[in-house]
């Protein structure tokens, strides 16, 4: 059964294509293996390989074989790069940009995008999302989080509103009316870089 692309991604051929393009174009100068792109897109390797092949054939990315892996990088020298990156920032951007800004902050156990942006990513219909709502689980310095989300909001052109909860509170979410409601609504997991402490 073919997975339908979320409402935010109506201009892209598939959700996997949008996710892969976002990883590439919102990280210019960085290269990714097809396996990494498949994981980021939550897609089978074969599907990611087909999407990468199409993207390279369109001239939006370049690929180079290094050892057993194929590394793919966005082509920033094309006329389409800037407008495509802007479109990807608005559609897939929060799940790519926010982790970049949270990287290096100690004490984050988990993070989720919630609210209307998450709902649209989960194919719920409704108005275009405004602010981005972010739930962060852990014990971490609020000032660092506020600085990080302020910086993330600039390229996203949206305010990012963080809410920090302890791991204990998150585990007992059913006892808190706000958190209980939150767990029943769409959540988009934020994949934080593995290099964080």
TrEMBL record:
It comes from the Bacteria. This is ArsR family transcriptional regulator. It comes from Cryobacterium algoritolerans.
């Amino acid at each position: 059964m073919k997975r339908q692309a979320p409402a935010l991604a109506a201009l892209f051929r598939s959700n996997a294509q949008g996710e892969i393009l976002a990883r590439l174009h919102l990280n210019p100068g960085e290269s990714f293996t097809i396996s990494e792109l498949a994981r980021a897109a939550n897609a089978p390797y074969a599907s990611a390989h087909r999407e990468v092949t199409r993207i390279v054939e369109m001239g939006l990315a370049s690929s180079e074989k290094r050892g057993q892996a194929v590394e793919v990088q966005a082509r920033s020298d094309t006329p389409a790069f800037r407008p495509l990156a802007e479109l990807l920032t608005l559609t897939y951007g929060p799940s790519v940009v926010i982790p970049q800004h949270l990287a290096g902050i100690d004490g984050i156990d988990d993070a989720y995008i919630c609210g209307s942006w998450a709902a649209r990513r989960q194919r719920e219909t409704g108005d275009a999302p405004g602010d981005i709502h972010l739930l962060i689980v852990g014990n971490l310095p609020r000032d660092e989080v506020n600085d990080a989300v302020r910086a993330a909001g600039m390229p996203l052109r949206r305010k990012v509103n963080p809410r920090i909860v302890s791991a204990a509170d998150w585990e007992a979410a059913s006892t808190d009316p706000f958190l209980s409601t939150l767990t029943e609504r769409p959540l988009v997991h934020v994949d934080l870089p593995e290099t964080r402490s």
